Amino acid sequence: MPTSELCATHDHRADRRPFQNLCEVDDGDLDAVLASLAEGSRRRFGPHYLPLRRATEARARELFVRAGGRPVRRHPHYFVLGESAWFAGLHDEPRAVTVPLAELPPAVTSFTWTDSITALGLGTHLGVAQPADPRERGLYRLDQLDPTATTGTGRAEGGDDYEGYQWRLLDHYVEIQLWSDEPVREHLAR
């Protein structure tokens, strides 16, 4: 499929605006935000999640700059290449924002071939294995995306069961990181 026909999907809860990032929550508000996220969600944010996510985002930003990217934001907005019923199913009442891939500028958009925590190897000390495929162990500029590459469901090994998914490798999928507000500005005010 040509890149011009591909889309990126950001799944979020219906009761929340899209493109919120836990790394941007003040530490004093974090417990309340995490408690509210636990209701109506199958997402798991254990005690190690936020430090791991912050370290991953710092490493991803560093790698993106090293690869020639020009991030504007400190923390990215996240998407999945195409659509994933598994990701949408993490929320009781899911909503999605879909953006044509052609509208995401390569200078501010990176991707990993699976979840960025897994791809960058920062979860290994918690027992989250790195993918065997070397291609799935890095961060790339959007203009390096092979449009003929197949994408998976995003679901964890073991099928559609969400129980314990955070400890299993996710099926092959492409996570997209947008390091700018501009392409999604109309959605940020919702």
From TrEMBL:
Domain of life: Bacteria
Protein name according to UniProt: Chorismate lyase
Organism: Microlunatus capsulatus
Species classification: Bacteria, Bacillati, Actinomycetota, Actinomycetes, Propionibacteriales
